[in-house]
Please model this.
Amino acid sequence: MSTTRKIALITGGSRGLGKEMALRTASIGLDIIITYKNNKAAALEVVKEIQSLGQSAEALQLDTSNTATFEGFIALLLETLKVNFEEEAIDFLVNNAGIGIKSPQGNTEEKVFDELMNVHLKGVFFLTQKILPYMKNGGAIVYISSGLTRFAIPGYSLYASMKGAIEILNKYQALELGARGIRSNVVAPGPIETDFEGGAVRDNKDVNQFISQSNALGRTGIPSDIGGVIAFLCTEEAKWINAQRIEVSGGQNL
Model:
């Protein structure tokens, strides 16, 4: 088994922030496995971009909201590691896959609650549990939260609550995995210009202006503002950063 190769698994890596995370992490010399839910073509394009940087990459299908599929995914992951990377375990896990739903509490149906919980809490919890036996000691986990756990915007109480639960999980994860030297941290982006929630921040001029005016740096975030932070947390330089919530928002709603 190689002693120098390091591999990061990034869920939801076919577009948006996940794609940027994958490319930036590859740019510092890591091999990458991304997951995608439906768009295989987009995922394969990301794989090609990573390979053009000189790193190995693969894309695996995964619905992170469906825990019944996790055993099969782990089997596929292990086969991919063995055949394509000559490895038996990964070094880094970035739990990025997610959806955005704006739903005021008074109008939220139970099915919406379940959908957000399955993607942002249940799926993340149990996928991490399944992967941990196949993570190398001394590696790291990164969870993606949101600036909305610090500041409130009407309509996001449910989404933010799920992310808040992840921030608590992160602390316990760091404590429980400390004996293995596995670090666990949360990155909490502010509003970013992607296709998240239908591209509201990117494409709606009023929303974009509102966010920009309430940001210390006077603009909204872009994917490249986030990817480098994820890559940094997968480096030796970040070895003493653990159990932290790192907000990457440019100074939103101070």
User: Anything to note?
Assistant: The mean pLDDT is 95. The CA atoms of residues 66 and 123 lie 7 Å apart.
